[in-house]
Amino acid sequence: MSMNTVGRPSRPETAANDYVHPTLTGARGLLQDEALIFELGGWDKTGVDLPEASAPSDALDGLLRTAPIGLPGLSEPETVRHYVRLSQKNHAIDLALYPLGSCTMKHNPRLNEKMARLPGFSDIHPLQPQSTVQGALQLMDRLAHWLKTLTGMPAVALTPKAGAHGEMCGMLAIRSAHEAAGQGHRKTVLAPTSAHGTNPATAAFVGYTVVEIAQTADGRVDMADLEAKLGDHVAAIMVTNPNTCGLFERDIVEIARLTHAAGAYFYCDGANFNAIVGRVRPGDLGVDAMHINLHKTFSTPHGGGGPGAGPVVLSEALAPFAPTPWLVHGEDGFALVEHAGEAGAETAFGRMSAFHGQMGMYTRAYAYMLSHGADGLRQVAEDAVLNANYLKARLSGAMSPAFPEGPCMHEALFDDSWLEGTGVTTLDFAKAMIDEGFHPMTMYFPLVVHGAMLIEPTETESKQELDRFVAALLALAEAAKAGDVERFKGAPFHAPLRRLDETQAARKPRLKWKPVAAAPLAAE
Amino acid sequence: MRYLPLTPEDRAEMLGVIGVDSIDALFVDVPGVARRTDPVDLPFHAGELEVEREMAALAKRNRSAGEGPFFCGAGAYRHHVPATVDHIIQRSEFLTSYTPYQPEIAQGTLQVLFEFQTQVAALTGMEVANASLYDGSTAAAEAVMMATRVTRRNKAVMSGGVHPHYVETVETLAHAAGVATAHLPAAIDAEDAVIAAIDADTACVVVQTPNVFGTVTDVSKIAAAAQAAGALLIVVTTEVVSLGLLKSPGEMGADIVVAEGQSIGNGLNFGGPYVGLFACKEKYIRQAPGRLCGETVDADGRRGFVLTLSTREQHIRRDKATSNICTNSGLCALAFSIHMSLLGEVGLRQLAAINHEKARALGDALAAVPGVEILTPRFFNEFAIRVPGKAAELVETLAGHGIIAGVPFSRLDATAGLDDVLLVAATETTLDIDITFFAKVLAKVIAQ
């Protein structure tokens, strides 16, 4: 009962109808129309209380700033309100299913956040004496043990800061191993057409030429094409498994055998490890290097685009070339060998970043591993695969699965043949999903499937949420087939903004705020 | 298991809908040799309480910076982060969202990135900035690669003041890509020495201010020399708070600025995650790495933001991309932006002034210690001192007295012959009593 009319309960005065009008302020109920911080007038304001300081040293004469910087400030209440208002314009996994294929948007346990904030982890410096950070080094050692055990691989380089950084780490190790063996003439990397864009980008970035491998009609590596393209010029193959079509590469063991027989290494893109963690060890498949996105399989939050972490497990052949720092067990506990060429890391290929990697992600991932344990992680893979196959089964009547035969792994891939003749595209369909409260699936990827829609539910969705999602998609599919095209072409109608003009953004890039007329900057 | 919503009944019903008997039927494509019937050899699941106990036991074995006197810098700095920052970055909508690929439902993240880019551009004095890279060191490596694309030349010259770990990071990537590097010997006050090393093949010169020894340098002359020779000037800054007090690299003519943004909004975290700041002249933007957020309008003409110029990026350009980066440091960039909004220009200038004041107090105290020599001629909040004997051993001894005394230069570069050099930093978190105690114990230890 509402008591907002001087004590008398109120009720709607008119019946529900279709009358929709734009508001006078641009706000929409709880959704505020929020200005940029530069438009809030805080050129002389601050939200911190700091003591006064003396004038700088004379030694800095001529090196000091004289002109205004152009940074606005806000009081604490204004700051909180600004960012809370902005936050409400984001979709999030905490709000609803976030079925971005290849991204593994799973629940992020808050225990992990709490653990990462223990001062013993969050308030330690990467270069303070190693005798004072033995717990941190031990955590890295245990994380390494879990990653090696889960993958069946003998070594791991923890430092890479994201998946693509891990790819670079693996490819640099491969390059070094070839050079050490007098095989430096190998300059080609093979990758399937369906590969993540990071694979060819990484290979090219470290100096390789990329040649694509064809795909079979059932969505796997074309073995004949692979065999034909392997040779003495090939340094490595980069294959994602389960692959980007959501399928397990049935011939993976043979792929590894052929690759090794040709003198090349097998780099596995581990972005989809969530589908097999605890059930399949990549080491048993013949993999030489594989990155593990801790922000996917091990649930460290995606944070609107990072930070991630991409440790790389390595085979015996590649382990000697891993980047520094190396974690070693010394006489007095754990120690770091920090420079390539030093005793203990003579053959390291170099350094990937200034410090030891993403400690804040290690703590979260390790807390997650401890929580799940060996049994729970196996269940993670099983439920992730079960959820994806359930969606595939429920949606296949209305939408067209790209590979109808056999099970998928952790993600279900559809093409757009079922939309043919409706006038609705994959993009339109995705935007209409926004109106129904769901984040769209990954669209137009992998490139090998026309109008691809790649749906990855993850294991942290309940059957009720999956059914809610299915109901929404089936209703939309029916609307599309019934000719309700405007619902799709104009979508989204109910999001914080309507469809955005990306062409204009690229044609005349405006990459920062600029004062409109007279600069409102405060003079010194 | 508390993170898994499916019940045994759900699973049975769902297998029925799929039309298979068991979960194993969904893993049929896995080759027989790799099918595991048992869980791997690791402990089984644990409740929150048990996990907390184990994590707390590990955390306890570390001496956190806040426990006592602490003077480490060398690329990572302990600053006070307002409580508001950590509260906001834990909001579900920021913490648990993905890269903003669907702009209609990601305006929160996108507007933050647009504001972040504007803040970084202002702070560095540059025309444009990107939406962040992993950290300062990888940003430096990306900048060098970008300079080779812009100039179509193949060599990077790095000063002896650039953080040795940054140099190693750049060299690792550059050498793999076939780019030559010339790294000048470690030098406390010789950023200008790069000028003599510029030749017709030089794509860029990389200098740092304040440099790894804390020395502040006006790089205008270097900028002029580099540009006259057709090379770009890349300026590295590992302590962005310094930009509240010092002339920006942009004012001094930098073409690309890379910085470690950790100091604003982000904790020490044992080295990561941090946030790489990347800014450059507008004319080079199409060669820049990483994501860019731009302003546009929606179908109703309302202002909105989108990721833009993505034809540079790996998901579109694949092997022709300007970088392989995908996931970057979104949440750390958010923390940076919130903290910067709280500070504002007024607060940042004041914070910088306090840092400088604390470092001068530390310098005065240490200069009075017999046997200690201050080596850095002009510093912001960090400087190098010469100590009798090996700095690394001294640091261990002082740790035994409860003092985290700083970073021995030998830890960054053991081959430079600077084993008696110690890098010490002070920030607003440094107490006067910490400084007094440090000087007192140092004097005693040296005298022994």
How does this structure look, described?
- Chain A is of the alpha/beta class and 524 residues long.
- Chain A folds into 2 domains: 111-368, Type I PLP-dependent aspartate aminotransferase-like (Major domain) (Aspartate Aminotransferase, domain 2); 375-496, Alpha-Beta Complex (Aspartate Aminotransferase, domain 1).
- Chain A is built from 13 helices and 12 strands.
- Chain A has helices at 76-87, 110-116, 119-122, 134-151, 163-180, 198-205, 223-229, 252-261, 359-395, 426-435, 463-481, 486-489, 502-507, and strands at residues 155-157, 188-192, 209-213, 234-240, 265-269, 289-291, 312-314, 326-330, 333-337, 412-414, 442-443, 453-455.
- In chain A, the strands form 3 sheets. In chain A, strands 1-7-6-5-4-2-3 form a 7-stranded mixed sheet, with helices on both faces. Chain A has a 3-stranded antiparallel sheet with strand order 10-12-11. A two-stranded antiparallel ribbon of chain A has the order 8-9.
- In chain A, helix 2 (110-116) packs antiparallel against helix 9, helix 5 crosses helix 6 (198-205) and helix 9 crosses helix 11.
- The radius of gyration of chain A is 27 Å and the shape is globular.
- In chain A, 57% of the residues are buried.
- A 7-stranded mixed sheet of chain B has the order 1-7-6-5-4-2-3, with helices on both faces. Chain B has a 4-stranded antiparallel sheet with strand order 10-11-13-12.
- Chain B has 14 helices and 13 strands.
- Chain B has helices at residues 8-18, 48-60, 83-89, 92-95, 107-124, 136-151, 164-176, 194-197, 220-228, 314-317, 330-367, 391-400, 409-412, 432-447; strands spanning 128-129, 155-158, 180-183, 202-208, 232-237, 256-260, 276-280, 292-297, 303-308, 373-374, 382-386, 407-408, 421-425.
- Chain B folds into 2 domains: 68-81 and 349-447, Aspartate Aminotransferase, domain 1 (Alpha-Beta Complex); 83-339, 3-Layer(aba) Sandwich (Aspartate Aminotransferase, domain 2), CATH 3.40.640.
- Chain B is α/β, with parallel strands linked by helices and 448 residues long.
- Chain B is 37% helix and 13% strand.
- The termini of chain B are far apart.
- At the A-B interface, helix 1, helix 2, helix 3, helix 4 and helix 5 of A face helix 1, helix 2, helix 3, helix 4 and helix 5 of B.
